[in-house]
Amino acid sequence: MTHNDRDDPDFEWVTGEFHARERESEAAADRMFDERGYADPVDFLREAGESLFGERWKTEIARDLEVTDRTVRNWSAGKFEIPDGVVSDILALLEAREAEIARVRSGGRRMLERIEPPPESSSRAPTPAT
């Protein structure tokens, strides 16, 4: 059995909830940065860390940046300045994750096309019965 969101009675609610969260996230982002980028490198560190690794981002980003957890905690608390090179390294992590997500998404779409081929167009003339 295949699942089609349009047949799901909860689809509208889920979609509405997603869009509400998306709007809240955009509003929060507007407060943190403008067309020039993030106003505070700490906000960038937190947003990037959570986007990459979720709630336990500090340990994971420390591992990938090859620094100690304590260093990341001090950066995120604003105790130490975040070096410019670290910002570049975080951007590289984000770009790598973005590329990986795009690859997986593309594979998922191709799989879905095999599972649920697009409906035939109703504009085609019916095939005569023999």
> Roughly what fraction of the amino acids lie in strands?
under 5%
Alpha-beta classification = mainly alpha
Q: Residue ranges: pLDDT <50 for 5 or more in a row?
A: 1-15
Q: How many H/I helices? A: 5
Overall pLDDT confidence:
79
Number of strands: 2
Following the backbone from N to C, one meets helices and strands in this order, namely HEEHHHH
Measured as a percent range, the helix fraction is 55-70%
Radius of gyration: 22 Å
Categorize the overall geometry: elongated
The largest sheet has its strands arranged as 1-2
Largest pleated sheet: 2 strands, antiparallel
Describe this structure in words.
The protein is mainly alpha-helical and 130 residues long. The chain has a domain at 38-115. It is built from five helices and two strands. The chain has helices spanning 11-32, 41-53, 57-65, 69-76, 84-115; strands at residues 33-34, 37-38. Helix 2 (41-53) packs across helix 3, helix 2 packs parallel to helix 5 and helix 3 packs across helix 4. It is elongated. Residues 1-15 have low confidence and may be disordered.
In a few lines, what is going on in this structure?
This protein is mostly helical and 130 residues long.
Features:
130 residues; mainly alpha; disordered N terminus
Helices and strands, with pairings:
Blueprint: H1 11-32, E1 33-34, E2 37-38, H2 41-53, H3 57-65, H4 69-76, H5 84-115
Antiparallel strand pairs: 1-2
Helix pairs in contact: 2-3, 2-5, 3-4
